[in-house]
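**User:** I keep going back and forth on a fold encoding question. It is easy to fool oneself when nobody else works the same problem. Could you pick a protein and write out its sequence and tokenised fold? Could you put it straight underneath, so I can go through it closely?

**Assistant:**
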Amino acid sequence: MSPPARSTDFAGVLFDKDGTLIDFHLTWGPAVHAMIRALAGGDPALMKAQAEALHFSIEDRRFLPSSPLVAGSTADYGRRWAEALGRTDFEVLKAEIDALSAAESLKALTPIAEPPAVFSALSAMGLRIGVATNDSERSARRQIEALGVGAYVDFVAGYDSGHGGKPDPGMVLAFAAFLGTPATRVVMVGDSLHDLEAARTAGAVAVAVLSGPADRAALEPHADFVIEHIGDLPGLLSRLQGAQ
């Protein structure tokens, strides 16, 4: 079966968060370092064990390309984290990780481009806006408010919102259902293959941004369009809609 035709009559834009709306390394590097320290109680051996399990450089406070935190969710890497800490109370630990994540990420929150200006422009075009992230919904909502775009966002999905996590298409399909429109009228914007796969599987338009860890060579074969960052999105969509 051939894939659904891509629409240029757009109804909504669904944004990934980390690497798309906020700088991944500048926000999550300091946050994860603080989380590792807190969960280790300052014990250097436990900090090292966590860093090795998560492919994270404590010295540089940056993620290695192989880190499961780059695109995964707590549900994906939480057990690896638990093993590094020698803990078996996974559900308790997952709640601790999510709570620490929501608090620590705000302290170093670093936006990409100017999210309020971008969201305002998209809203003026009649587009509805959503955010879909493999972070927790609680953390996502707090960051959305901190970015100053809460008034523009109609839909928020985290890994724990009941729609599954990316690369599965559940979040994209849920946004389309929320809008009451086919997924072919949704634009999914993200910096990872997980985002693009979720878009493609759902039948949405896949727009890759180069503001995250992945480069053009990795993303371009899987995207309908590639832009440098979200600041380029209103222009792209205006051109596409004007070409109808």
Q: What stands out?
A: Residues 25-107 form one domain. The chain is about 45% helix and 15% strand. The two ends are 25 Å apart (CA to CA).
